[in-house]
Amino acid sequence: xxxxxxxxxxxxxxxxxxxxxxxxxxxxxxxxxxxxxxxxxxxxxxxxxxxxxxxxxxxxxxxxxxxxxxxxxxxxxxxxxxxxxxxxxxxxxxxxxxxxxxxxxxxxxxxxxxxxxxxxxxxxxxxxxxxxxxxxxxxxxxxxxxxxxxxxxxxxxxxxxxxxxxxxxxxxxxxxxxxxxxxxxxxxxxxxxxxxxxxxxxxxxxxxxxxxxxxxxxxxxxxxxxxxxxxxxxxxxxxxxxxxxxxxxxxxxxxxxxxxxxxxxxxxxxxxxxxxxxxxxxxxxxxxxxxxxxxxxxxxxxxxxxxxxxxxxxxxxx
Amino acid sequence: xxxxxxxxxxxxxxxxxxxxxxxxxxxxxxxxxxxxxxxxxxxxxxxxxxxxxxxxxxxxxxxxxxxxxxxxxxxxxxxxxxxxxxxxxxxxxxxxxxxxxxxxxxxxxxxxxxxxxxxxxxxxxxxxxxxxxxxxxxxxxxxxxxxxxxxxxxxxxxxxxxxxxxxxxxxxxxxxxxxxxxxxxxxxxxxxxxxxxxxxxxxxxxxxxxxxxxxxxxxxxxxxxxxxxxxxxxxxxxxxxxxxxxxxxxxxxxxxxxxxxxxxxxxxxxxxxxxxxxxxxxxxxxxxxxxxxxxxxxxxxxxxxxxxxxxxxxxxxx
Lengths: 318, 318
Description:
Oligomer: homodimer
Shape of chain A: globular
């Protein structure tokens, strides 16, 4: 028996064909990646976190030039020039923003006043409920397997998504560890209505990360990432001399100041963008080891949909 | 179009109706729990880890008395009286053993010589490959959200299961964070052919854990567990004065000896079995917060199957 397909709320909200969002990742998510994802039927996001407002504006203009399909901007709420960034979004009629690393109370109604849809990233149910109160339009529930900055509670995608699903009525986008159609299906089984995929797109042809970073991350074993910097802001990155040194220091009780000193300035730019595999912060998710080979966004999306449909057919009744 | 159902390899291997195994958990998995799970169509396991060989023998005899359905024993390979335990299994014709915390090389062929099927628990793909070489019959791939002893690599169920599935031909049982039919479906989507469920059964009516432990764990928030003891053997437990003290000590660089001193002797017995919520080690998985209310095993199994079938119907094509 064919189930009559209800409209997917994430697709309706964002105006996209497939409920697949590419995370707006520092040093990876420029206009090339975001545009390619939107062209492939998903939602591309610019990663404002690593962009000076002038750079952000260049990328916004490029997006408008290269696609008439929906796309958005990921804006960490600790962005140093928040007011300038918001003015840019408004001036250029960007109408989707993904916010993270801060309270949704502060900016959601301001965005709404300008007709901008707001999706906020959370790592536990308490924040999900706060998002609902603040009036955001959808929630990204991101598990600890995700690359980069992580919640302090270290909930995994498998435990977080169904609990957020139950806690709020808003549509939930699952994130963390999703890099295949099977995982997309798993996320939907857990009650998500869409997925945000980071690592797989960070390691795509169109990502603006350096080739050295992509090659290194695509060759990692399954045990190739670690979560460190718990005393600064917990961050998942690839094992390399820098991250191992950070972990060792943490194990011996290093405080935030010492960790910051070891990390140095502009560590993620050095690692991801400049490809310094030894001294750079190689921000990447735990699923990196399953993301190869290097492909274009179009190939990745095609494969995701094929795997999803195959996995869906394979699922049996018990 | 109805998909013709292929026989499930886990059900065939273990002779069970539903591919649901109850983890053999210290201080929880006595004959009452194991027998109830087998009666409900899953596989019950005795948790030998917390049993003196004499106690193990009593529970084995009780199992033989109360069920003619398949059941097994979980035997950590660091069990202090391994030879006696193995003799017990052989003498009483126990024919399924789940092994963990050690190399599958050492005992698998011995078990096979006695007609005992062996399932080994792993936390990364390297160990999964070792299991296949050692000739085990199936693998449990257990993510870091699981309660109790954990692998050092902290792979989550979402990232671990599909990678183990690809690395070996053996049937894979997913574990860690699974306490609903939705999660069971997610595990199947990731390529598992069965699930091992710990926490949900540890917090059931038939579990031999204390009422105080069950009540406490069932009232935890989603952020109510933590992973600590990384310098001894990484262990997930509920937040309580003991675990918070352990985590603080770890944060300040405590070594294994100091952690052991804080933990004290028989900490898990004190916490789980005796219900000392302050000084006991409350071993439980991250999904505890989604396990309530307290129910019988029969109710839990019925609900799992119902949720699974509802979630399966809900899954749409993209």
